[in-house]
Design goal:
- The complex is a heterodimer of chains A (57) and B (41).
- Chain A is mostly helical.
- Chain A contains one helix and no strands.
- In chain A, 2% of the residues are buried.
- Chain B has one helix and no strands.
- Chain B starts with 5 loop residues before the first helix and ends with a helix.
- The longest helix of chain B has 32 residues.
- Chain B is mostly helical and 41 residues long.
- The chains are: A mainly alpha (57), B mainly alpha (41).
- At the A-B interface, loops of A face helix 1 of B.
């Protein structure tokens, strides 16, 4: 079968098309949980550096 | 089609942009506060 020619997307105007592939009803919560995991990892790293432990007195 | 139809995808993306911009704004503010407190570079 001949290689199908697909137009290259123009971003950001074509950004919305990601949701025609990744259904937010399925993937929005996993995406948000990954963002939370990253935030927790970054905060953990910062808290473990003595100079920037904003919780230590 | 594994995702949303085009019209719903555009509608969802409008809200996604608002929420994401708010998130980046709050993160930028937090970084400015830390920068004022203790510059890390």
């Amino acid at each position: 079968m001949a290689e199908q020619q697909v137009n290259r997307p123009r971003n950001p105007e074509d950004d919305w098309k990601i949701w025609t592939v990744c259904h937010p009803g399925i993937w929005l919560m996993p995406i948000l949980f990954v963002v939370l995991l990253i935030a927790l990892a970054v905060h953990n790293t910062v808290l473990n550096s003595p100079a920037y432990n904003f919780l230590a007195g | 089609m594994t995702g949303l139809p085009p019209d719903q995808a555009k509608e969802f993306h409008e809200q996604f942009k608002i929420t994401y911009t708010t998130f980046v704004g709050i993160a930028a503010l937090a970084h400015l506060l830390v920068l004022a407190w203790k510059p890390w570079f």
